[in-house]
């Protein structure tokens, strides 16, 4: 306790040093001032960045001199990240927080084709694309393109690791199609032209129920932890429960993450017998961790629950085993589900090694307490820095290299199958395990290809795990520091 009080006293001294200046000094470089102070307080790796040290600047004038050097807010933000692209691979800043808010809920510009980009066999430069799924009521939904289609070029230009971003970021483009046969990509004369519009993806993509003797197997493909669709997720689980399922195959192979709160809800739906128990434990930077543990330790704990934030009762399955389908695109909140359910039930993972995103972020606005309340009217910047790691109830959370599957089974581009069909290779593998036929590779293994990118991680903030707000909204902490 004494050490914590000493730490808090130091934070107060640091905060007061800046408060001694007139408010107008803060506005010398308003966006940059917000970036530095937000990262100084919340950034997970703040102790490792010398420029973010609490005693780096003696007063606001010195901070202003430092901030004025940078040509843009983005330049400052990137300069303050800890080993950007190596250790910190996920912190982002947006010049318009409305774009960021939309991205958090799966609202992006899309033509409806969700795809993966894969290296050609024995190449580190040439890539081709394959269609993973088509978003309903999108531009692609009305075109002659479907899951399993292969494309090798865009607007007649062959894809490679240098040009893919510029080609596929256009609002309108033409995909030049090809066939895939055992690793051989052969161009055809077919093509399809697609146009992007703003699109809100319902992450509950499809469900199915398959009965195999005494096993009533539910299937749910869930493609994003978007909290706006918590009711739809709960309803889907409720429908599966009403059909009497006693096994669940959860397809997260294309789910790049999202809300920690929604992940907690889904874990509570899968189970139900652990209401109130610890699901996940948050770990912040040292000064915030000490403060929260002293003032509000419960705020760092995500617990199984029996209701949504709107008070609706959670539909739960009370399962003791869940089967989860993965690829290299399975990230963040999807990995959280796997890791944090493991102390409680059997989690059987089928597919590929996951992304390895074990850290989370929060939206920081330029306001007195970094929430959206009383946000600055001088600009629309907001940042989404990494602020925490999340461990499971046993204290484990180090999987930055990805989570290994129990059964390694990569997608086969010769036979992608129909999502939700019991004949689709990954779902079929899960059914085979449920029926007691072992965990071995009984489908052709497509081991000679390697994923390069996908349509979600090509987007800024495409693979994210985030909390809705800082504990106590950050307000109580800032009041104490003042």
Question: Explain this structure to me?
Answer:
The chain has 13 helices and 24 strands. A hairpin with a 2-residue loop joins β5 (150-154) and β6 (157-158). The relative contact order is 0.15. The chain has three domains: 2-84, no CATH class; 111-198, PDZ domain (Pdz3 Domain); 204-447 and 460-471, Alpha-Beta Complex (2-enoyl-CoA Hydratase, Chain A, domain 1). 26% of the residues lie in helices and 25% in strands. It has helices at residues 2-19, 23-26, 30-42, 60-67, 73-79, 97-104, 164-168, 230-242, 260-270, 286-295, 333-341, 425-434, 475-481, and strands spanning 92-94, 107-110, 113-119, 127-134, 150-154, 157-158, 172-181, 184-195, 197-200, 204-212, 215-222, 247-251, 258-259, 278-283, 301-303, 321-326, 346-351, 359-361, 364-365, 382-384, 386-391, 407-408, 451-454, 465-466. Mean pLDDT is 89; it is low at 1-17 and 19-24.
């Amino acid at each position: 306790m004494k050490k914590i009080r000493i730490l808090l006293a130091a934070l107060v001294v640091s905060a007061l040093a800046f408060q001694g200046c007139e408010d107008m000094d803060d506005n010398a470089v308003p966006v940059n001032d917000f970036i530095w102070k937000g990262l100084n307080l919340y950034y997970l790796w703040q102790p490792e960045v010398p420029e973010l040290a609490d005693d780096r600047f003696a007063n606001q004038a010195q901070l202003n001199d430092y901030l004025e050097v940078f040509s843009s807010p983005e330049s400052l933000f990137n300069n303050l990240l800890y080993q950007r692209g190596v250790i910190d691979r996920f912190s982002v800043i947006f010049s318009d927080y409305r774009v960021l808010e939309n991205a958090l809920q799966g609202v992006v510009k899309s033509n409806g084709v969700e795809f993966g980009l894969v290296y050609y066999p024995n190449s580190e430069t040439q890539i081709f694309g394959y269609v993973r799924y088509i978003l309903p009521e999108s531009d692609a939904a009305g075109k002659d393109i479907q899951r399993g289609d292969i494309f090798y070029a865009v607007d007649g230009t062959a894809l490679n690791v240098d040009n893919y971003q510029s080609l596929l970021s256009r609002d309108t483009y033409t995909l030049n199609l090809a066939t895939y046969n055992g690793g051989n990509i052969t161009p055809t004369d077919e093509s399809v032209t697609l146009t992007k519009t703003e699109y809100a993806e319902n992450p509950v993509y499809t469900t199915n129920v398959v009965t195999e003797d005494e096993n009533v197997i539910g299937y749910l493909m869930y493609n994003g932890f978007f909290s706006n669709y918590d009711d739809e997720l709960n309803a889907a689980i409720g429908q599966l429960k009403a059909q009497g399922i006693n096994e669940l195959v959860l397809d997260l192979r294309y789910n790049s993450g999202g809300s920690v709160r929604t992940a907690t809800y889904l874990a509570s739906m899968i189970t139900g017998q652990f209401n109130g128990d610890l699901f996940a434990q948050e770990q912040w930077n040292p000064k915030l961790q000490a403060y929260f543990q002293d003032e509000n330790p419960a705020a760092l704990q995500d617990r199984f629950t029996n209701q949504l934030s709107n008070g609706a009762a959670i539909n739960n399955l009370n399962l003791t085993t869940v089967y989860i389908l993965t690829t290299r695109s399975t990230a963040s909140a999807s990995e959280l589900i796997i890791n944090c359910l493991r102390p409680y039930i059997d989690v059987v993972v089928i597919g590929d090694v996951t992304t390895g995103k074990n850290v989370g972020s929060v939206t920081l606005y330029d306001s007195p307490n970094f929430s959206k309340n009383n946000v600055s009217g001088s600009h629309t910047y907001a940042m989404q820095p990494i602020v925490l790691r999340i461990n499971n109830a046993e204290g484990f959370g180090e999987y930055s290299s990805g989570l290994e599957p129990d059964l390694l089974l990569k997608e086969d581009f010769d036979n992608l199958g129909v999502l939700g069909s019991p004949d689709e290779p990954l779902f079929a593998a899960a059914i085979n395990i449920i029926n007691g036929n072992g965990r071995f590779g009984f489908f052709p293994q497509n081991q000679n290809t390697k994923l390069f990118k996908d349509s979600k991680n090509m987007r800024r903030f495409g693979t994210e795990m985030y909390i809705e707000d800082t504990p106590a909204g950050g307000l109580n902490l800032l009041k104490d520091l003042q």
